[in-house]
């Protein structure tokens, strides 16, 4: 039996159903049981803090969640204070933006405060409608504020065209929407942010458990001491995990923690 010192939870389709804006009541029960056992709890999400759903913010406050690993590991807070931050290089941002402008691709800049878009065209507004519908338009936002990650808006048919552009600038893409990808420095991941944050707390990846469902959870599930994929997760996420729990709609987090003996039945 594995007893973690800290557990990381993805948000979308792990703790929270984005399409229905719902959090199962069992999630709060799970967090209360973990707190009673003295196990630290953490969110690990691709979202910036500004785009965390209100229901998850309420849960974090009520449950006393200890850590927020956001923007795919590039900005971390511990008990409300910044713990780890990795801004992107301004010159690299300028270079890829020039290429995207040539190709007519809209893009956005992500930091802990907001998501600033290059232009509010329909494909951008549709993709961000359930993430952060109220956001500024500022094509040169990176010149005045730290940027931890970019978003670029195009469908999978253009992946082979755009990935080399990202690679030339030392960046990688991870798709999170049928019309949008995260773009961030190669080697970056939730796992990297978690490892950096844990080191500052005197913990290691082997002390951690994680729950996730998506492509941006793969490194996290592989790197922690025990990775758990949701029953509704992608095949790739499930293949990266040591255990597959029920789906988010079937109280997967709560039932998974019970089945693994982390909390009592």
TrEMBL record:
GO terms for molecular function: magnesium ion binding; phosphatase activity. The keyword Amino-acid biosynthesis does not apply. Coiled coil: none annotated. Gene3D superfamilies: 3.30.1240.10, HAD superfamily/HAD-like. Its EC number is 3.-.-.-. One of its GO terms (cellular component) is cytosol. InterPro entries: Cof, HAD-like_sf, HAD-SF_hydro_IIB, HAD_sf. SUPFAM superfamilies: HAD-like. It comes from the Bacteria. Transmembrane segments: none annotated. The keyword Metal-binding does not apply. Keywords: Hydrolase. This is HAD hydrolase. It comes from Bergeriella denitrificans (Neisseria denitrificans).
């Amino acid at each position: 039996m594995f007893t973690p010192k800290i557990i990381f939870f993805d948000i979308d389709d792990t703790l929270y159903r984005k399409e229905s804006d719902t959090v199962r009541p069992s999630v709060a029960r799970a967090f209360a049981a973990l707190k009673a056992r003295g196990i630290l709890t953490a969110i690990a999400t691709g979202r910036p803090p500004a785009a965390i759903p209100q229901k998850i913010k309420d849960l974090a406050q009520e449950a006393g969640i200890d850590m927020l690993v956001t923007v795919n590991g590039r900005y971390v807070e511990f008990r409300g204070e910044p713990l780890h931050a990795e801004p992107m290089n301004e010159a690299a941002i300028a270079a890829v933006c020039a290429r995207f402008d040539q190709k007519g691709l809209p893009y956005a800049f992500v930091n802990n405060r907001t998501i600033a878009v290059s232009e509010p065209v329909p494909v951008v507004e549709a993709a961000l409608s359930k993430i952060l519908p109220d956001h500024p338009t500022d094509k040169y936002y990176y010149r005045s504020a730290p940027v931890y990650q970019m978003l670029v808006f195009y469908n999978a048919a253009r992946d082979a065209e755009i990935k080399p552009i990202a690679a030339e600038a030392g960046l990688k893409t991870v798709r999170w929407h049928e019309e949008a990808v995260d773009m961030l420095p190669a080697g970056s991941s939730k796992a990297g942010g978690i490892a950096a944050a844990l080191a500052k707390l005197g913990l290691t990846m082997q002390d951690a458990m994680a729950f996730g469902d998506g492509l941006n959870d793969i490194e996290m599930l592989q790197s922690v001491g025990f990775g758990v994929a949701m029953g509704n997760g992608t095949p790739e996420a499930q293949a990266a995990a040591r255990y597959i729990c029920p789906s988010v709609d079937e109280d997967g987090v709560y039932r998974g923690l019970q089945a693994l003996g982390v909390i009592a039945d």
